[in-house]
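Structure, all two chains, one model.
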Amino acid sequence: GDSVTQMEGPVTLSEEAFLTINCTYTATGYPSLFWYVQYPGEGLQLLLKATKADDKGSNKGFEATYRKETTSFHLEKGSVQVSDSAVYFCALRSITGNQFYFGTGTSLTVIP
Amino acid sequence: DTAVSQTPKYLVTQMGNDKSIKCEQNLGHDTMYWYKQDSKKFLKIMFSYNNKELIINETVPNRFSPKSPDKAHLNLHINSLELGDSAVYFCASSRRGGSLDTQYFGPGTRLTVL
């Protein structure tokens, strides 16, 4: 069945450091891929998405490229800020049904 | 206007009690979901309703029962609460059909069972 695997945290970075959170998926066909962010005490919010191979989703300085050949959707940001501290979830929406699959979440802490 | 709302935000109760969490969305979506998030932030889907019909029912205890009076509401009723039910419960909604549409999440309900 479809699934998502993302790197385990927690991740701690200094402000302005480069961020990569790895995400790989297993799915039939070409699912849509998403990154969600959960700030402390809040619900999940969509950060970015990509719906077909080679698409790049971007938002708030974050980027992720849909790589069909490596079945990956890694999240990157060139210079993180303290306000980026949150839990990040990789997810996919199956093409076969109305189902979403989430990774286990990666906690990011950015220190000044 | 809040897109997906849940009440209450916090719920503290004793073991053995019965409680409900309400969810409403004003996005015109036809599919709604309940997720449970444990203390390690792992997100587990519990139920999904599409046009008032259950379409996913993961292996959750039958003490949990979703109720959908209409497609804008999906309430979660929990009988005989146990310590292990303590978690944050999130409601979400989406449009059915096509892989383009994302889910929108509510703010969560933190349930603490004493």
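The first strand of chain B starts at residue 4 and ends at 7.
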